[in-house]
Structures are given as structure tokens and as C-alpha cells.
Amino acid sequence: MSKETKAKYSYDFPRASVTVDCVLFGLSEDKLKVLLIQRAHDPFAGKWALPGGFIEMEESLEASALRELEEETGLSKIYLEQLYTFGDCGRDPRGRTISVAYFALVQAAEHHAKGADDASAAEWFPVDKLPKLAFDHAKILDCALTRLRAKVRYQPIGFELLPRKFTLSQLQRLYELILGRELDKRNFRKKILGMSVLEELDEVEAGGARRPAKLYRFHRKQYDALVKQGFHFEI
Amino acid sequence: MSKETKAKYSYDFPRASVTVDCVLFGLSEDKLKVLLIQRAHDPFAGKWALPGGFIEMEESLEASALRELEEETGLSKIYLEQLYTFGDCGRDPRGRTISVAYFALVQAAEHHAKGADDASAAEWFPVDKLPKLAFDHAKILDCALTRLRAKVRYQPIGFELLPRKFTLSQLQRLYELILGRELDKRNFRKKILGMSVLEELDEVEAGGARRPAKLYRFHRKQYDALVKQGFHFEI
DNA sequence: CTGACTTAGTGTATTTTTTACACTTCTACA
DNA sequence: TGTAGAAGTGTAAAAAATACACTAAGTCAG
After folding, report:
1. A133: DSSP letter
2. Chain A touched by B89 (CB under 8 Å)
3. What is the set of domains in chain A, with CATH numbers?
4. Which chain A residues are closer than 8 Å to B54 by Cβ?
5. Among A51, A186, B137, B211, who pairs with B133 as Cys (CB 3.0-4.6 Å)?
6. Which pLDDT tens digit goes with each residue over A160-181?
7. Is the C-beta atom of B206 closer than 7 angstroms to strand C?
């Protein structure tokens, strides 16, 4: 345990390292944001990067991603979806590294990320105002954004970005942000309510010098049931 | 090179193996088929499995997949798309193995696959009549089928499965096979022709005791141009 | 207390898209 | 030459998507 610092694991053939990286999207200040950490160590020390790191041997890929995320940003209990696997030869100066990328949507407001472990800082950046990223993380992020835009059209994933109780205007605004275009209020409401995946609550939004809006909640069970029946959610 | 058979590559931390596996779909005898190889070696010697194997260090993931495919089945020059990465702990009895799965569509008729290398045989199996598969390959195949069914709805991928020149009836039949339901002939033609991604040829189908059908060709350039304009292909 | 301000909330008419549906055409072969 | 068999074609009805403008409910300032 003292001087045995190298050559502890030997194999007949060379092996690549496997890492996981997470693209976390959040919504705050009326902007779509992504969570980045500032790297504490080389390579790319001081540079911004996606949270992530090496997998452990007795952990599934997703578990690795969740662990790294918690270690570096303090965030936990997040639903991750696998995005893509990046394995080009030159992508990591330390040697051949395969990175399995995950992405997730969270309520940025609820998650005050703080840097820890291999990260000296963690911060939410607007997706249209990003710093230069380490490794090929710009490419990974780009891939995630494309996926998000495609996905939001036919899956009700947007709900993950909002507080559990939200107004229809908030929901519409979210869709407009992700899709990058305005939607008609009446048509949006008609459509989304017609899907019966929203549960109308008996509460209204507090505060503000205007008519208070009704609050709704996403009805996941109802949604899952509809999906099973072959329902096609599409905005 | 003679007795140095172990411990040639050493690392400070344990590393997982990385493999690639390919799900190749083909069309023949009016059935959707998938290409399997019979494993020549342990583990699972004699069992059917997806073609695939370990990556090399100086090869991209896709290049590895193409190489393995050629080694084991003789097929080459195929457009592969990354499907998903499978990395659960118990999936390979040899130890922790991460498999990056790819999938592709080819004209089964044109590709007389023959077993070679680590495969003692290669054969096309109808997707609804599969043998028991090695590793977690049944899961991978299932994932590929789901993806294919989802994808065929909004991308004109089916064309890869047909000969370069094909009739509208063949195309319709293909869609029916993949989607698993019948389509109306007139509506199908109206829709597909309305997309202007098919080029009508001056040839007709030969042979057969019936009215010969016009031949068409997929117009990839036209399709790519439409996609750039934000065109949404959907059957 | 009331009027001004701000966002919430609502319905209908038009256009477009999707669906359902049946007969004629063309060729090979008996 | 006529019969078998797939190819090929149009229209009407239903459903979905779109465009569009006013009233309602609350806060706050005066």
C-alpha cells in the first residue's frame, strides 16, 4: 500500500480507460443552462468541463455517472439518460479513453451546485454563452443539445426542468426556450391539456401584481399508461 | 513474442475491456432478418451471437466495429450508426466489459455472409425466430429493433434495405414489415411521392406474369437538402 | 376605493393533413 | 384471346393544426 504505486493491474492486451460524463440541463433566470465544473487537476486544470470521471469496476455505467456527479457537484437522485459514447483516439491526452455520456434535466434553482473533489468549482452556464471546454466536451454538449431539441418534441421531458407545481405559462415558456420559437398560447394549452397528462391543482401561483395562474402537476402515471397504449406525445 | 504471454500491459487502476457489437438488419424472403455468428471460442462457444469483438487501441469505435464485422462475416463498407452502450457488471463472464453496440441496415441478398475468424458460421435469422443468444445480446438486439421501429417513422432509412432500384410496392412492403401493420397503397404512394425524395426511373421491373412496376431510386441529395431546410420525414 | 396595469384564461372559423375506399391498366401465360 | 395478378389512380369525409382578439382576476398607486 506504500510504494506499490504502479503496475498493479496487468493485462495481456492494452486496455482503454472508460469514463462517464454528464450533461445536466437546468432552467433559471429564463434561460436554458448547463452545469459545468472547473477542473482541479491536469490535464486541462482550471478549464471548464462536464462533470464526470473514471468508472469503478463494480458499478454500472449509470451508477458511475451518478457517483461522479455527486462527488463533483453535490447533486444526487437524478434521472440520467444515456446520450452517446465518444471514443475517438485523440480525445484525451492521457491516452485512449472511451467516454459514455449521459444527460439529464433538473431544476437548476433547486440545485445549488458546489465544486468538490476533482472540481474546484461548479456553475450553471447559459447554453448560448459557454466558456471554452476541456477535451471534446464541446462536441458532447452539442450532441446533448441536439438530442434535447429533438426529444422535447415527442416526449414530455420538459417537466423535469420545472418545479413540481407549475403554471401553463411557465411550461409554454420552457418549450419556447428549448425550441427557440414562439408558440400560440391557446393552441399550446389546448394541445397540452388535451393529452390529459397534467393534473390541475386547487392552488394558484402566489405573488405578483396580476391575475394569479392555476398550478398544475405532471401526471407521470397517466403518461406512462398512455405511452403503453402507443400514445404519441408531440408538441 | 514466445513466452511473454501475460502481464504485458500494466496500469495503476483496474480497467474494463471495451468491445463493439453490431446489429445488422437485412431483408430477404419477405422477412426482416438479423445477422448472427456462431461463436468459435469460449465463452459461449457454439452459441449464436452478434458479430463483434475487442477494440484496438489506434482505432475509432466505429472502425473497430467495421473491422470486426469484416473479420467475422466478410461484410464491408457498411454505414453503421451507434446504438447504445451496454456496461452492466455481470454481462461478460471474462470480467467487466463495456460493449458499444452499432446497428446498420443492408441488403441481405447482396451480402452472403460467411463465418470466419472467431466465428464458425454467419447466418441471417428472421427477427421473430431467433436462437438463444450469448451474453446480453438478446437485450442488445431488442434495443436495436425498438430503435429501428422508431426511426423508420421519421427517417427514410428503409431504403438501405432495398436494392438501389426498387418498386413502390417493395418499399411499402418493407415499411409494413418493419412497422408490423398494413398500409393503404394509395395513401402510401401519395405520401412518399409527395416528399420528392424518390426519383422515377425509365425502367420497369422485369419478369413476373403481371403488369410490370416502375422502378424508383432514392434521391439522397434531395433528401439531404430537405433535411437541412428542417424537413420532417414521417410515415 | 377605484382605475390602471399585468398576466391568465378562453372559442371559433379556416386550412391542412389524414384517412377510407374501388375500379381500371398492363403484362405474361395458358 | 382471355384470364390471372399485381400496378396504378382520385375523391370525399374526418381529424388535426393553425390563426386570431377579447375578457377575467388580481395587485398596486394615487
Report:
1. B
2. yes
3. 17-152 (3.90.79.10), 157-228 (1.10.10.10)
4. 13
5. B137
6. 899 999 999 999 999 999 888 8
7. no
